[in-house]
């Protein structure tokens, strides 16, 4: 099984550096162009994508719909692909939170996958639900290529887990909006991983 793991396009809160989590904000005009550029890159690469799976959050679902239409394949909404829940930190500006809770911000976004924001979930928990989804996906799609549209923070956890076997260094795997990674499983084991693929975004104007 091959998985094309995609981060959603830029949103207004991404642009303003506001923490999203399970909250949502609209896609920006640049985000629309990012989606078109990603679709063009996937079509050029000629991946035989059989299905799109998307987080139900609006910013991911919108990209999922665009990719499904452009690639002429079905879209399935999958709740386990949501972003990590940031609880009471959602809707706060990153700069504001850094000033008021610097240790919490460093733990949450840089150092500690087991840190739980107030009324949220840990990155370890969020990563595990996606890893469980991948396990079920392999059973149903052993010889297929699928596209999975998810979110930035939780994708970092997944990539760290698959690349290193542990989640500790998740912050190494930060990637831009509308970038993608290619994951390949053989006999239940991830045998190949290319991450942070974003050359299709290089010519986009701000």
Automatic annotation (TrEMBL):
The active site is at 8 (tele-phosphohistidine intermediate), 83 (proton donor/acceptor). Signal peptide: none annotated. The keyword Glycoprotein does not apply. CDD domains: HP_PGM_like (cd07067). Keywords: Gluconeogenesis, Glycolysis, Isomerase. The keyword Thylakoid does not apply. One of its GO terms (biological process) is gluconeogenesis. SMART domains: PGAM. GO terms for molecular function: phosphoglycerate mutase activity. Substrate binds at residues 7-14, 59. Its EC number is 5.4.2.11. Belongs to the phosphoglycerate mutase family. BPG-dependent PGAM subfamily. PANTHER family: PHOSPHOGLYCERATE MUTASE. This is phosphoglycerate mutase (2,3-diphosphoglycerate-dependent). It comes from Kluyvera genomosp. 2. The lineage of its organism: Bacteria, Pseudomonadati, Pseudomonadota, Gammaproteobacteria, Enterobacterales.
């Amino acid at each position: 099984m091959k998985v094309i793991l995609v981060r959603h396009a830029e949103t207004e809160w991404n642009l303003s550096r506001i923490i999203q989590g399970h909250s949502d904000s609209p896609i920006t005009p640049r985000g629309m162009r990012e989606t078109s550029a990603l679709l063009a890159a996937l079509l050029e690469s000629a991946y035989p994508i059989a299905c799109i799976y998307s987080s139900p959050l609006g910013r991911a679902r919108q990209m999922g719909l665009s990719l499904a239409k452009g690639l002429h394949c079905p879209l399935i909404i999958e709740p386990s692909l949501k972003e990590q829940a940031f609880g009471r930190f959602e809707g706060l500006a990153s700069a504001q939170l850094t000033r008021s809770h610097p240790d919490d911000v460093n733990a949450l976004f840089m150092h500690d996958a087991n840190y739980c924001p107030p009324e949220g979930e840990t990155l370890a928990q969020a990563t595990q639900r996606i890893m469980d989804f991948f396990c079920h996906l392999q059973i149903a799609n052993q010889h297929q290529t699928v596209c999975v549209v998810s979110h930035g923070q939780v994708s970092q956890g997944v990539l760290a887990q698959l690349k290193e076997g542990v989640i500790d260094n998740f912050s190494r795997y930060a990637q831009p909006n509308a970038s993608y990674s290619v994951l390949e499983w053989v006999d239940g084991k991830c045998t190949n991983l290319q991450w942070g693929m974003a050359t299709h975004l290089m010519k986009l104007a701000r």
